[in-house]
From TrEMBL:
GO terms for cellular component: axoneme; centrosome; ciliary basal body; ciliary base; dendrite terminus; Golgi apparatus; intraciliary transport particle B; photoreceptor connecting cilium. Its main location: other. Residues 1-25 are annotated as: Disordered. Transmembrane segments: none annotated. Keywords: Cell projection, Cilium, Coiled coil. Signal peptide: none annotated. It holds the Pfam family IFT57. This is Intraflagellar transport protein 57 homolog. It comes from Equus asinus. The gene is IFT57.
Length: 429
């Protein structure tokens, strides 16, 4: 696998990210590269391959009737509840595959307790988990992929699985070179020239003119040799054996190229002949089907005419009934409109009647009610009392005024008497 060698740190970051220490503070600042967000997709693909090596489809999915997860199931959010249940089920199965007993979580178990149990088992395997448990509650993300990948590696270690180098298939040679005589070497030269012509022109076809010229030169050379050799000393049996041995190597093979226009023309001719042969067979069936459909349509037309003639009076009655129904509907619409108008007038009159009733009730209640009369009587009584008090006060004031007048009058009288006394009387005293 391509990413089998990638190491994921406990915090979900892959090795190789740049880390720098802050000045004076002593804190480690982790800088994530641009590809860190996509690292969980690589881890998820590796996890799927490891689960296939552990035969999880036969041992887990089919027994629990679960659907196989996709290659990016835990990397993308789809259904958090379903993903969390799938994560807990896979984690429990991987822990059991790694040789440690772990109960299969149920749907209604406490998620916090389940996550803490899974993380404790992960720490027992020597793996670190420096992230909050709440990161696993969503059921997806880099931390979920990290936990499942670690458990899958531990399960593979427990069953003794080891990665081996890939074996590449051996490529078979097309033809083997065999030593040949003078005549065969001449034909090989012809083939080599033919191949060179193919590579130069970049087309897979034989230049017939060159081949004819070369064949003509070979025939001329053989005819010159035949004039020199008048009598053959070669054994016929050996000659036939040699011909059988060399015959497969004398065949000229032409490699077909799908881009060659000659092949396209041949294919067009083949398709044309196939279409023509198929058309001959199909045309008869189509003509037969056309005739049957035509006869059926004629029968249907004649039956329609017969039915129309037989049911003409019923059709007329139906049309008359339709006309009467339309008239009745119009009258009903008109009557319905009058009823609606009268209903509206009735509602208005009813509202006015309710208002008049309410006013009459208010006036009647005000006329029969004795409270105002009682209040008037109380007010009159109070006014009488106040009048009496005012009268008493007025009498007191008048009496006081009268006394003051009388006193003043007596004083004036005394003064007057005092001034009238004679002086003789005054002297006698």
């Amino acid at each position: 696998m391509a990413a089998a060698a990638a190491v994921v740190t406990p915090s979900g970051l892959e090795d190789g990210v740049s880390r720098s220490r802050g000045d004076g503070a002593g804190e480690v600042v982790v800088e994530r590269g641009p590809g860190a967000a996509y690292h969980m997709f690589v881890v998820m693909e590796d996890l799927v391959e490891k689960l296939k090596l552990l035969r999880y489809e036969e041992e887990l999915l089919r027994k629990n009737n679960l659907k196989p997860p996709s290659r990016h199931y835990f990397a993308l959010p789809t259904n958090p509840g379903e993903q969390f249940y799938m994560f807990c089920t896979l984690a429990a199965w991987l822990i059991n595959k790694a040789g440690r007993p772990f109960e299969q979580p149920q749907e209604y178990d406490d998620p916090n307790a389940t996550i803490s149990n899974i993380l404790s088992e992960l720490r027992l395997f020597g793996r670190t988990a420096d992230f909050p448990p709440s990161k696993l509650k969503s059921g997806y993300g880099e931390h979920v992929c990290y936990v499942l990948d670690c458990l899958a590696e531990e399960a593979l270690k427990y069953i003794g699985f080891t990665w081996k180098r890939p074996t590449y298939p051996m490529e078979e040679l097309e033809e083997e070179t065999v030593p040949e005589d003078d005549a065969e070497l001449t034909l090989n030269k012809v083939d080599e020239e033919f191949v060179e012509e193919e590579t130069d022109n970049e087309e897979n076809f034989i230049d017939l003119n060159v081949l004819k010229a070369q064949t003509y030169r070979l025939d001329m050379n053989e005819s010159a040799k035949q004039e020199d050799i008048l009598e053959s000393t070669t054994d016929a049996a050996e000659w036939s054996l040699e011909v059988e041995r060399v015959l497969p190597q004398l065949k000229v093979t032409i490699r077909t190229d799908n881009k060659d226009w000659r092949i396209h023309v041949d294919q067009m001719h083949q398709h044309k002949s196939g279409i023509e042969s198929a058309l001959k067979e199909t045309k008869g069936f189509l003509d037969k089907l056309h005739n049957e459909i035509s006869r059926t349509l004629e029968k249907i037309g004649s039956r329609e005419k017969y039915i129309n003639n037989q049911l003409e009076h019923l059709v007329q009655e139906y049309r008359a009934a339709q006309a009467q129904l339309s008239e009745a509907r119009e009258r009903y619409q008109q009557g319905n409109g009058g009823v609606t108008e009268r209903t509206r007038l009735l509602s208005e009159v009813t509202e006015e009647l309710e208002k008049v009733k309410q006013e009459m009730e208010e006036k009647g209640s005000s006329m029969t009610d004795g409270a105002p009369l009682v209040r008037i009587k109380q007010s009159l009584t109070k006014l009488k009392q106040e009048t009496i008090q005012m009268d008493i006060r007025i009498g007191v004031v008048e009496h006081t005024l009268l006394q003051s007048k009388l006193k003043e009058k007596s004083n004036m009288t005394r003064d007057m008497h005092a001034t009238v006394i004679p002086e003789s009387t005054i002297g006698s005293y």
